[in-house]
Automatic annotation (TrEMBL):
Record InterPro entries: DUF7318
Domain of life: Archaea
TM region positions: 21-46, 66-86
Name of the protein: Uncharacterized protein
A Pfam family reported for this protein in Swiss-Prot or TrEMBL: DUF7318
Keywords: Membrane, Transmembrane, Transmembrane helix
Length: 139
């Protein structure tokens, strides 16, 4: 559904989400895996896997740190797939009309001030310098 209006805030294009059942089942399964990974990571932190408690060899500590890092990586990758599926399948695609600004509108107060002012005006040097550094000095 598209509107013909071109005023600021009008919806230009609206495509409803697909809301497929397969995506919903996938999100539920990925969420179950996410809960399991977070539980494994939490248990590992409480048990001290990555802190070296009960280990005397440096190799075991490095392996434990790599395992905990791998679990944390899997947590964030799984979370990214959950958000990707949700965004793709359950959020509408909406394009709204935005106000177009000219180049000079962001930097200057008036269109006449686009060319700027000369810096070496003698008496007005400080005022000119303030305007050059901060264009919205006096509105």
């Amino acid at each position: 559904m598209a509107s013909e209006g071109s005023t600021y805030g009008d919806i230009h294009r609206y495509e409803p989400p697909r809301e497929s059942t397969a995506a919903a089942v996938g999100i539920v399964l990925l969420t179950i895996i996410q809960v399991g990974l977070v539980g494994l990571f939490t248990y590992g932190m409480i048990a001290g896997w990555a802190s070296g408690i009960g280990t005397t060899l440096t190799v075991r500590l490095i392996e434990a740190n790599m395992f905990m890092g791998g679990v944390l990586t899997a947590i964030f990758i799984d979370l990214s797939f959950i958000m990707l599926l949700y965004r793709k399948e359950f959020l509408p695609d909406v394009m709204i009309v935005k106000k177009r600004r000219r180049k000079w509108e962001d930097l200057y107060i008036r269109q006449e001030d686009v060319d700027g002012e000369t810096v070496a005006d003698g008496d007005k040097f400080a005022e000119t310098f303030k305007r050059a550094v901060y264009p919205y000095y006096k509105k």
